[in-house]
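Lab meeting, item 3. Inverse folding demo.
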C-alpha cells in the first residue's frame, strides 16, 4: 500500500473517532512484510514471507482515555473499533494529565533500501555459517533467523499532526553454543541489524570475540569462593545493566511516585564522570531508528547522563505532565554508552580480582537499586588476566552504587545496528560461588 493511501486511511480513522464523540484522537497505522530465512541445527530449514497490518487508536473524551488496537484495516473494522475505543473512554477515570501531541511540522521519513536482494541475503547467511565452521569449529549454530523487513507507518491526530515512515533493513539473530565430545556450553545469542549486504556478517559487531570465548567456555568449572571485586560487563549485556538503571531511576513510574533515588538530582552528579549515556535513534550507526515517538512527536536524540551528571529523565508526555518535569525527546531503546580512554587489554590488566560477564539473567531490581542474578558465559579475572571460564555464578550489588563506581570504560565499542556499547568495569560487585 502506498503512503498516500495509508494517510487517507488514517484520516478516515480520525473521522470515525470524532464521529463517535472523541474530543481529541490519535491513530497509528502500520503495514509490513518480512522475508525470512531460518537455519536450525546448522541446516537451512525454512524460507517464507509474512505480512501484517495494525491500527492503534487513542481518544480523550471528557478528560477520560480510551485505547484500542486491531489487526484489520478495512473501513468496516476501523469504524467498529473506533466506536469501541470511545466507549472505553466513557467508562474510564478522569485524568487531567491526558493529552495528544501538539501541532508541529509534519514530515515523511524514509530509511533503507527499496528492493531487497534476497539471493544475496541467502548467500551471506550461508557464508556466515561456513565462516563459523572454519574459524570456530567447536561452535554450533542451534538456530538462526535472518530477514528483510519492510514497514510503512502513519501517525496522525486531531491537532493536525501527521508523520509517515517507510523503513526497510536486514537483520539476523542467532543462538549458539560450543560442543566438544560430551562437553557443552550454555547457549548464548547474537543479533545484528544492517542496511546493506556489502560486508561479511561475521566481521560486524563482536561475533568473532564472542565465538572465541564460547569455545573457551567448554572448560568451565564451578566457582566455589566469594569475593567483592570488579565486574567487567561486555557489550553483549551492558544494555541489561545500564538500561535497567536508566529505566528504574529515570522512567515514568518511579519519577511519578517520587521513589527514584535520582528524583531530585537533575543537573547533579549521579554517576562516575567516566560514564556518558545517550539515546541515539537518529544516528548513522543505528539501523532503522525511531523517527517519531509513540506519542506523536518528532524524535530527537537525548543525553541522559553526561560525564556522570543527570541531564534528563526518560519520561513520556503523560509522566511529564504528572510529575511536572520535561518530556524526553525519545523513548527509543537505541542507546550509546560513550567510549572511554582505556584500551580493553589495559582495562583487564588493571583488575586484581574480578569477573568478565558476557550474559546476565536477573530479576527486577529493588527500588533502591539492589539486584542479584546469574552471570552466564563468564570468566574469572585474576591478577590482570582472564583466566578460567566459570559455570553460572551469582553476582549481586547495587545499581546506583555501580553507576558511581565505574573504574574504566574501554576505547573499543561494539555496534549491532541498535546500540553502541564499550566494555565497562564496575567496582563493588559481589561474586558468590557454590
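The presenter then showed the designed sequence:
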Amino acid at each position: 500500500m502506498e503512503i498516500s493511501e495509508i494517510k487517507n486511511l488514517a484520516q478516515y480513522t480520525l473521522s470515525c473517532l470524532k464521529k463517535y464523540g472523541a474530543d481529541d484522537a490519535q491513530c497509528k497505522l502500520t503495514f509490513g512484510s518480512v522475508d525470512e530465512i531460518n537455519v536450525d541445527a546448522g541446516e537451512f530449514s525454512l524460507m517464507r514471507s509474512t505480512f501484517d497490518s495494525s491500527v492503534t487508536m487513542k481518544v480523550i473524551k471528557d478528560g477520560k482515555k480510551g485505547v484500542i488496537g486491531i489487526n484489520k484495516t478495512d473501513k468496516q473494522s476501523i469504524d467498529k473499533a473506533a466506536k469501541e475505543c470511545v466507549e472505553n473512554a466513557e467508562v474510564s477515570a478522569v485524568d487531567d494529565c491526558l493529552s495528544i501531541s501538539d501541532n508541529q511540522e509534519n514530515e515523511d521519513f524514509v530509511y533503507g533500501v527499496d528492493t531487497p536482494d534476497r539471493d544475496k541475503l541467502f548467500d551471506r547467511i550461508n557464508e556466515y555459517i561456513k565462516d563459523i565452521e572454519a574459524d570456530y569449529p567447536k561452535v554450533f549454530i542451534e538456530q538462526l533467523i535472518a530477514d528483510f523487513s519492510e514497514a510503512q507507518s502513519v501517525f496522525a491526530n486531531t491537532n493536525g499532526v501527521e508523520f509517515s515512515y517507510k523503513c526497510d533493513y536486514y537483520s539476523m539473530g542467532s543462538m549458539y553454543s560450543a560442543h566438544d565430545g560430551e562437553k557443552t556450553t550454555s547457549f548464548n545469542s547474537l543479533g545484528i541489524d544492517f542496511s546493506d549486504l556489502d560486508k561479511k556478517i561475521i566481521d560486524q559487531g563482536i561475533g568473532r570475540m564472542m565465538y572465541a570465548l564460547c569455545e573457551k567456555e567448554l572448560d568451565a568449572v564451578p566457582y566455589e569462593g566469594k569475593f567483592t571485586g570488579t565486574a567487567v560487563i561486555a557489550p553483549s549485556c551492558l544494555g541489561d545493566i545500564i538500561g535497567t538503571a536508566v529505566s528504574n531511576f529515570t522512567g515514568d513510574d518511579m519519577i511519578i511516585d517520587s521513589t527514584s533515588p535520582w528524583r531530585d538530582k537533575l543537573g547533579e552528579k549521579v554517576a562516575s564522570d567516566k560514564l556518558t549515556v545517550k539515546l541515539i535513534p537518529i544516528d548513522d550507526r543505528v539501523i532503522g531508528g525511531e523517527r517519531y515517538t509513540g506519542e506523536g512527536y518528532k524524535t530527537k536524540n537525548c543525553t541522559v547522563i553526561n560525564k556522570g551528571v543527570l541531564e534528563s529523565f526518560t519520561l513520556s508526555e503523560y509522566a511529564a505532565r504528572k510529575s511536572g518535569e520535561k518530556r524526553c525527546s525519545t523513548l527509543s531503546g537505541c542507546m550509546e554508552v560513550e567510549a572511554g580512554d582505556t584500551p580493553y587489554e589495559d582495562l583487564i590488566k588493571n583488575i586484581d580480582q574480578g569477573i568478565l560477564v558476557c550474559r546476565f539473567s536477573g530479576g527486577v531490581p529493588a527500588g533502591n537499586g539492589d539486584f542479584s542474578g546469574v552471570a552466564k558465559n563468564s570468566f574469572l579475572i585474576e591478577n590482570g588476566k582472564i583466566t578460567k571460564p566459570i559455570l553460572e555464578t551469582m553476582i549481586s550489588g547495587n545499581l546506583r552504587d555501580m553507576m558511581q563506581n565505574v573504574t574504566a570504560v574501554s576505547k573499543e565499542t561494539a555496534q549491532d545496528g541498535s546500540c553502541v556499547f564499550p566494555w565497562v568495569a564496575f567496582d563493588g560487585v559481589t561474586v558468590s560461588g557454590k
